[in-house]
Design brief:
Order of helices and strands: HEEEHEHE
Oligomer: single chain
Radius of gyration: 31 Å
Structural class: alpha/beta
Low-confidence stretches: none
Strand order of the largest sheet: 3-2-1-4-5
Helix content: 25-40%
């Protein structure tokens, strides 16, 4: 014994709206997962970095070397330069060409922070193409 309440209409009315609630729920769950996992992906561990075995790149015809000596003095090419005059000295050497690559050499006893200060001075002067120079590892040959 059953009763029919729709009076014979078997067709459902068409609904043209998309239900986005499940999509929003999935996005919120993914957001929470990534918020929890992202800090775990960056772990600060002290590491003793090995020497590079990369093949040396060909040198340009007239490379411009900036050297940081063990006493933290700067030498541009063969000429000593003061830190305050670094931007003007490099501009004089490059003719104001900010796209020229500067090869930065440093004594191995110079602290990483001091090398970064020199790189920041180069960036402040507008020279963004900086190549770090190191000794070639014997395993690379």
């Amino acid at each position: 014994m059953s009763v029919r309440l729709d009076h014979g209409e078997d067709d459902f009315a068409e609904n043209h709206e998309i239900n986005v609630t499940p999509f929003i729920d999935v996005m919120l769950v993914l957001l929470i997962v990534f918020m929890v996992v992202a800090p775990l992906a960056t772990v600060d561990v002290p590491v003793d970095l090995p020497a590079s075995t990369a093949k040396p790149q060909p040198r340009p015809d007239k490379p411009l070397f900036l050297s940081v000596k063990s006493n933290l003095s700067l030498v541009l090419g063969d000429r000593p330069v003061e830190r305050d005059d670094l931007g003007a000295a490099i501009a004089a050497q490059t003719g104001g060409d900010k796209n020229q690559r500067i090869f930065l050499r440093s004594d191995k006893t110079v602290a990483y922070g001091d090398v970064m200060e020199v790189m920041n001075a180069l960036r402040a002067a507008g020279y963004l193409k900086i190549a770090l120079v190191g000794l070639e590892n014997q395993a690379a040959r």
